[in-house]
Amino acid sequence: MNKLAVTILLIFNYFVLFSQSFSNCEFNTGLSYNKDLKSVSDTSFLLTHSLSQEIIPETSVSCNLNGVHYTNSYYRVFDLASPIFNVIGDWSVQEVQIGVGYAKGGIDTIQDLRLILYVMSSYNGTIPLDSLSQKGDTINFQVSDNDSGTLKHIKINPSISIPEGNSLVVEILVPDGQDDGNIFFIGSNDLPQTDKTFIRANHCNVNEPVDVADIGYPDMHLLLNIVGAYDAANPQILSFSIDGQISDTEILDNPNLISLVLPADTSLTSLKPNIVVPAGFYSLPGSGEEVDFSQGDVEYTVTNEYNKISESWLVSVKKATPDIVSFSVPNQVGESVIDVNNHTVSAILPAGTDLTDVSPNISVYKDFAISP
């Protein structure tokens, strides 16, 4: 305890002046929450940074005096298009879920909290307040003492659409509880998370959202989930790869074709492609599923469980052959044309070029050589 007090004193030099601090929840709820959240409904899916939904007592902190909280804001950022989520397209938020670690009203058993959604154009690990644009109205909701140790579901009706390419920022604002004697610690745990937990508390001189780890609480991992659906679902294959491939994967639309090349000595009978599709979709065959490409192209279909929109791609996996992959000459005009079937390469050079002294740059597949 003494060590903790010294740490807080070093970080917050206003501790003595204002008799306020961040402190851990000292109330053991004796409750935990576990739930499989992969299937939320027939029309929507859940996004979370938390690898576990368990609420662990004494992992949450607030700016408070003897447990009675001042105004605290907690934040999560959902960089929707990032590889964590792969939400590709406009996406509407229908519900926010937060963990309630411990709630104890001073006058009543009910406390008023607020939910605010924002967007920002890019996310680099910080939340500058002047970069946020609020989406929709502030949503007022209530937490009761009986919610302690559970996951609180906050419905958003009508849903709020987040345009593609934006990061969603969710703020849970806990108003000052000093007059009423309210105690509230948001639900958290110390289990793995995929992004930072942020807090802002003006009474503790934290005037911008900061990572709780930066103020001495690396084990507070906020439980905050969002549920939503695409405004218009768009099945896509974002990436397709096979271990050991020696060419970049080419993904074409209209017609939907995918092609890549493997070493010449590769067996094509039992390959396990790695496939990335947008959140809420899945591929058939699935990522990591063993597939035989020795008989020709294989059709892959991307679909989802809620509106059954689907689209298919023909995937061609070939062994490397003694072909020229690229051919270029300094100062050439346009791109070279490589005709694999007729074994010819065409390149155009400026008029007046001395064709007796040309040094082309040529690439071939791995394990092959070219002469001259």
Helix count? 2
**What is the first-to-last residue Cα distance?**
76 Å
Under the CATH scheme, which class of the largest domain? Answer: Mainly Beta
Percent helix range:
under 10%
Looking at CATH, which topology of the largest domain would you report?
Jelly Rolls
CATH architecture of the largest domain: Sandwich
Q: Which structural class fits the helix and strand makeup?
A: mainly beta
Radius of gyration over alpha carbons? 28 Å
Taken from the alpha-carbon principal axes, the silhouette is elongated
What portion of residues belong to β-strands? 35-45%
Mean pLDDT: 87
The counted number of beta strands is 27
Largest sheet geometry: 6 strands, antiparallel
Strand adjacency order, main sheet: 8-7-10-5-13-14
Describe this structure in words.
There is one protein chain. The protein is mainly β and 372 residues long. The chain folds into three domains: 20-230, Sandwich (Jelly Rolls); 239-319, Immunoglobulin-like, CATH 2.60.40; 324-364, no CATH class. Helix content is 4%, strand content 44%. It has two helices and 27 strands. It has helices at residues 2-11, 15-18; strands spanning 21-24, 45-48, 61-65, 68-69, 72-79, 91-104, 110-120, 133-144, 150-162, 167-174, 183-186, 188-189, 198-201, 206-211, 221-222, 224-230, 239-241, 250-252, 257-262, 274-276, 281-284, 298-304, 311-319, 324-328, 333-339, 344-348, 361-364. Strands 8-7-10-5-13-14 form a six-stranded antiparallel sheet, with no helix packed on it. Strands 2, 6, 9, 11 and 16 form a five-stranded antiparallel sheet that branches. It has a five-stranded mixed sheet with strand order 18-19-23-22-21, with no helix packed on it. The protein starts with a helix and ends in an 8-residue tail after the last strand.
